[in-house]
Design goal:
Chain A is an all-alpha fold. Chain A is about 50% helix and about 0% strand. Classes of the chains: A mainly alpha (about 230), B mainly alpha (about 500), C alpha+beta (about 180). Chains B and C meet through α7, α8, α9, α12 and α13 of B and β2 and β3 of C.
Chain lengths: ~230, ~500, ~180
């Protein structure tokens, strides 16, 4: 009896002398001092739109090596800080968002290092001026119509319309260009060639990309966003 | 030799103090034989209170009771002081244990109707002790001086502020000034370490004295009625005939229970460590998500659920009514049956209170009425859903994120819970109903009419309309002209509503 | 008086009962006066903070150009009237809405329901409260949830291109507009 009590007291003393409770999860304050990792930042600030693991979200995937290799780092930081188009929010604290500016840089660098590792930059530039809309109409009919339907809405495509005016009012030209160049592989969407065994068995040229974007942009109604 | 020494010392003191003569009859006073395990909770409460006194004094030797230093001093106690974290852990866990034991003890006393004649006063003092315990727990949470403490005080101040006419003055008295600051912590420190423990110690003494005077009650038996005219005589006879001395016959059970409870407590404290502190008490940090300690979660939940029209009235009227009612219970019924089987109303009432407290606490833990502030950037729509969307619907899914709808709306269980889950909204509301709900709000949803462009509205409604569980048809109003329903199902989206 | 006599059986030093009665009354009176004298300052010290009615003081929230037009930003400041003893709690914040077309509205961060800190969402142009789900529109008016009214608004003014608000206390139902 006596011995058991001594043993217990010994165990209690040893346990109690430890620096922290046996269950360290109970200590929030210690954890709070460590800055969040890039993946934690992604999970809280991006996953909702760009997908839980960087793919299969409603907005274009970020886990896309070719995309990350082509778009310059500074541009990525700029988009994340200040937003883009209608539905990509400005997230930097300096722009009224919730994320400290330094965290955003760390986040982008994390994405580039983890998801952009083996990526090869595309030959076609990630951005460029609008091309010629009427030439774009032809290119659209050749390259896009089978999947996205005729731009006049008469023939339905298999993957849904991208020429719907309401759709176009919500996406920026840059987003259109990115969609054409990098597609949405996560959704089975390669909007760029080559499609083997078809007339379109080649990738789009730079001027064709700009033309299609111009064609779609021209179909966007010129009503601004309501204040 | 030793023994003789000891005996002579005891004899010497006893002759002058009469301590043994005073204590011995108390220790050996006769208690009913059937006073078994039901009666250990009061002792356990007392034990946890003693732990609070000891650990509290020790904490007071380390804690810096000033608003500028309190938070840092807790971090210091946790990380630098040898065993400091354990001290805080014991104090915190024992505080919860004390609240729990008070409630259990009180429920037992109520269910066995031990508050009836001649023990009415014992009950009343007990009620006061319950509120002292809760007050100690609340002021203790303030001592942590973290975000939860600051905003918890803010909630308290807002409630006091609602008192008509003098509310603002009362608030100033409570906070020690026009804002929550150094004076506030000092006030609550004085309450927590001087005023409340002092009152509690005095009341515990009174409670024990009353117990000795009234005697421990017997286990209730159906048919054994309490009649003030004859009760005392009968009780004394029975206890004399069949009772046992408190020490050691009844005390041994208390010792077994309290010993076990103490070991469990130390185990919990060692394993889980102290509570908080959770974030600096910096009121300019608006990312705080204040939550009270577990003993008060049910109040936190009730505050979300009270109907706004009568909220102020209930907030101010309920506490005094509850206290007065609890005090008055033995006056309302101090005679008659004690057995729970003969007091169905009392049993039902206690069950109702227990169910209410447990479910409110559970609601408080999940706090489904609170928006999830990061859901819009953190919680994506289900992948299975994303895979079947047209480009326009995809933009609608983005609008749902961008406009923070997800902070209040889950899709298939993920997201805020303030509004309904949207996973099947397309089979509940038609296109037109969806447009109206989004633009005009209602049912506790803000109106988005001024914020959304027509394109955003079309996109989000196109998305919502296809939110249907497999095979269910889109909702429609029978006979009504349906606008462009099919166009949103087919891959080709045409504008369904134009400018 | 007869009780008084009974008490001093055997040990009375011959004082007359009437003298004792007077002494008792004087004693009671003195104690009474003393108690009042003592309790007025003591109780006064306890309740005095409730009667502080200092006016709010103007606080400088920075240049108006720090607040982009059409947006709502968080302004942090030190509460006037606070002292070093308050530590971090002397820091406070307010939501500054720079209205398109000019003019400012400055809201307390404290929810009008029970004072929790509301958060601004630029996209939906809503304030949301983390405690019980109160929601407000960008002009501070109540949108949904339990709050009995809109957000508390500080008195504000612009002088020499700088924005000032009148602050100094915890906003509450009974003092703000």
């Amino acid at each position: 009896m006596m011995r058991a009590a001594c043993l217990l007291a010994g165990v209690a003393l040893i346990a109690a002398c430890g620096e922290v409770p046996l269950n360290k999860a109970g200590r929030d304050d210690a954890a709070a001092a460590v800055p969040p990792t890039w993946s934690a930042l992604y999970a809280t600030h991006c996953a909702g739109c760009h997908g839980a693991d960087g793919t299969l979200g409603p907005a274009r995937p970020m886990r896309d090596a070719a995309y990350l290799a082509t778009v310059p780092r500074n541009r990525l930081i700029e988009v994340v800080a200040a937003g883009q188009g209608v539905l990509m929010p400005a997230l930097a604290q300096s722009k009224g968002g919730a994320v400290p500016d330094a965290d955003l840089v760390r986040l982008v660098d994390g994405m580039l290092a983890e998801w952009g590792k083996s990526g090869k930059a595309l030959a076609v530039a990630w951005s460029g001026p609008l091309g010629d809309a009427s030439r774009g109409a032809t290119t659209y009919a050749t390259f896009c119509q089978t999947c996205h339907g005729a731009a006049d809405g008469r023939t339905p495509g298999t993957r849904g319309s991208v020429s719907d005016p309401n759709y176009l009012r919500l996406v920026s030209d840059q987003a259109l260009r990115s969609a054409i160049l990098f597609g949405r592989a996560d959704l089975g969407g390669t909007c760029n060639g080559p499609y083997p065994g078809q007339a379109t068995n080649r990738a789009l040229r730079a001027d064709e990309v700009s033309d299609v974007v111009a064609f779609l942009a021209a179909r966007r109604p010129s009503i601004g966003r309501k204040p | 030799m030793m023994l003789r020494w000891l005996r002579s010392i005891i004899g010497w003191t006893e002759e002058r103090s009469g301590a043994v003569a005073f204590v011995a009859p108390i220790m050996t006073h006769r208690v009913p034989r059937d006073a078994k395990w039901w009666y250990v909770f009061g002792s356990a409460t007392l034990m946890f209170f003693s732990i609070q006194l000891v650990s509290g004094v020790l904490l007071a030797t380390l804690y810096a009771p000033s608003a500028a230093d309190a938070y840092q001093s807790l971090i210091y106690i946790d990380n630098q002081v040898p065993l400091g974290w354990m001290l805080r852990a014991i104090h915190g866990w024992s505080s919860n244990a004390m609240v729990l034991m008070v409630v259990v003890h009180m429920s037992q006393v109520f269910l066995h109707a031990s508050f009836k004649y001649p023990r009415e006063l014992t009950w009343m003092v007990g009620v006061l002790l319950l509120f002292c315990t809760l007050a100690l727990a609340f002021t203790g949470q303030i001592m942590r001086w973290d975000q939860d403490a600051y905003w918890g005080l803010g909630i308290g101040a807002s409630i006091v502020d609602r008192v008509p006419v003098i509310g603002n003055t009362l608030r100033g008295i409570l906070l020690g000034g026009p804002y929550i600051g150094g004076a506030t912590l000092s006030r609550f420190f004085a309450l927590h370490v001087f005023v409340l423990p002092g009152i509690t110690i005095a009341l515990v003494g009174l409670h024990l004295a009353l117990i000795l005077k009234g005697g421990i009650s017997e286990m209730p038996k159906p048919g054994m009625v309490v009649d003030p005219a004859t009760y005392r005589k009968g009780y004394e006879e029975r206890v004399h005939r069949t009772g046992v001395p408190f020490w050691p016959d009844a005390a041994q059970r208390d010792m077994v229970f309290c010993g076990l409870a103490l070991i469990v407590l130390i185990g919990l404290a060692a394993f889980y460590g102290p509570f908080g502190p959770n974030g600096n008490p910096d009121p300019s940090n608006i990312d705080a998500n204040p939550r009270p300690d577990s003993a008060f979660l049910w109040i936190f939940a009730a505050l979300a659920l009270l109907p706004p029209q009568i909220e102020t009235f209930l907030l101010l009227a309920a506490p005094p009514v509850i206290v007065l009612f609890m005090l008055a219970i033995p006056l309302l019924s101090n005679r008659g049956e004690r057995a729970p089987t003969r007091r169905p109303l009392a049993v039902i009432a206690s069950l109702a209170v227990a169910v209410a407290l447990v479910s409110l606490t559970w609601l408080g833990v999940s706090s489904s009425w609170s928006p999830v502030m990061t859901a819009w950037t953190a919680t994506p729509a289900p992948v299975s859903l994303v895979k079947r969307l047209t480009p326009l619907q995809m933009q609608g899914a983005l609008v749902l994120q961008y406009q923070q709808c997800r902070n209040c709306h889950a899709i298939d269980g993920a997201g805020g819970e303030r509004g309904p889950d949207l996973v099947d909204v397309g089979s509940r509301l038609s296109w037109d109903q969806l447009v109206r709900q989004v633009q005009q709000g209602g049912g506790n949803m803000p109106a988005y009419g001024k914020t959304l462009s027509s394109a955003e509205t079309v996109a989000v409604v196109a998305f919502l309309q296809q939110c249907r569980v497999d095979g269910q048809p889109a909702a429609s109003i029978p006979g009504a002209l349906e606008r462009a329903r099919t166009s949103d199902l087919a891959p080709v989206a045409t504008p369904s509503a134009s400018e | 008086m007869s009780e008084g006599c009974a008490q001093c059986q055997g040990g009375c030093d011959g004082e007359k009962p009437s003298r004792r009665g007077v002494m008792f009354k004087i004693g009671a009176g003195l104690m009474g006066v003393g108690t009042v004298l003592a309790s007025v300052p003591l109780a006064g010290a306890l309740v005095a903070p409730g009667f502080v009615r200092d006016g709010d003081t103007w606080v400088d929230l920075g240049a108006t150009s720090d607040y982009p037009e059409g947006e709502t930003r968080l302004a942090k400041f030190t509460l006037p009237g606070s002292n070093p003893n308050d530590g971090e709690t002397s820091r406070t914040a307010a939501w500054v809405r720079s209205m398109s077309g000019g003019g400012f509205q400055v809201f307390a961060v404290n929810c009008a329901h029970l004072g929790c800190p509301v958060k601004w969402f630029q996209q939906s142009r809503l304030f949301m409260c983390p405690c019980h789900g109160g929601v407000y529109y960008e002009d501070g008016s109540r949108a949904s949830g339990p709050p009995p009214r809109g957000l508390f608004e500080y008195q504000s003014k612009v002088e020499n291109g700088r924005l000032f608000i009148a602050a100094g206390r915890l906003p509450g139902l009974q003092e703000s507009t």
